[in-house]
Design brief:
heterodimer; A: mainly beta; 11 strands; B: four-stranded antiparallel sheet; 0% helix
């Protein structure tokens, strides 16, 4: 069983709408949690990184939350744009060299 | 800052030949580099971790004689797929980390390998 579970697997929304992606993890010990955006055929690009003590972090229209007690994180995208269409990957680290990847959520933003 | 350049972005090769993929950190010294492969609609799978000047540590199930990793300098790591077969066709991605950058990892743009 994957230690990082993401939901939904895929999501289609209309341009301008908001959406929230979920990441639940069982990774222990916990060092940090990252959200990445991966466009098709490209490498992942970092959106946010949070440590145990951080509950929320924003990067433009992207806002990530972290509940370290329940081991849950979310990525909220506001006012979606067509360019937001991509896979969003949640990565939880145990230490500097041990990263556990979620399977990703494939987001499609339609006009 | 923290840019990682991966080359080539795509390559087509014949079965039985070898292919080399380069990963360079352009503006920082990468003390550790990671190599991943990714199949369509799946997440990244770690293949190996390499520290500058030492042998790479391969994940279980990854053939070290087939996927040769060299991390000879603080700014360059290479992955060579030897005697490539069609089942090696995949998307290969590197990432680099510097102790000076703290928790940061930067990914390359990936290489699409097609073996025909």
């Amino acid at each position: 069983k994957n230690q990082v579970e993401q939901s939904p697997q895929s999501l289609i929304i209309l341009e301008g709408k908001n959406c929230t992606l979920q990441c639940n993890y069982t990774v222990s010990p916990f060092s940090n949690l990252r959200w990445y955006k991966q466009d098709t055929g490209r490498g992942p690009v970092s959106l946010t990184i949070m440590t145990f003590s951080e509950n929320t972090k924003s990067n433009g229209r992207y806002t990530a939350t972290l509940d370290a007690d329940t081991k849950q994180s979310s990525l909220h995208i506001t006012a979606s744009q067509l360019s937001d269409s991509a896979s969003y990957i949640c990565v939880v680290s145990r230490d500097s060299n041990d990263m556990r990847f979620g399977a990703g959520t494939r987001l499609t933003v339609k006009p | 800052g923290a840019v990682v350049s991966q080359h080539p972005s795509w390559v087509i090769c014949k079965s039985g030949t070898s292919v080399k993929i380069e990963c360079r950190s352009l503006d920082f010294q990468a003390t550790t580099m990671f190599w991943y492969r990714q199949f369509p609609k799946q997440s990244l799978m770690l293949m190996a971790t390499s520290n500058e000047g030492s042998k790479a540590t391969y994940e279980q199930g990854v053939e070290k004689d087939k996927f040769l990793i060299n991390h000879a300098s603080l700014t360059l790591s290479t992955l060579t797929v030897t005697s490539a077969h069609p089942e090696d066709s995949s998307f290969y991605i590197c990432s680099a980390r510097s102790r000076l950058l703290g928790r940061g990892y930067t990914f390359g743009s990936g290489t699409r390998l097609t073996v025909v």
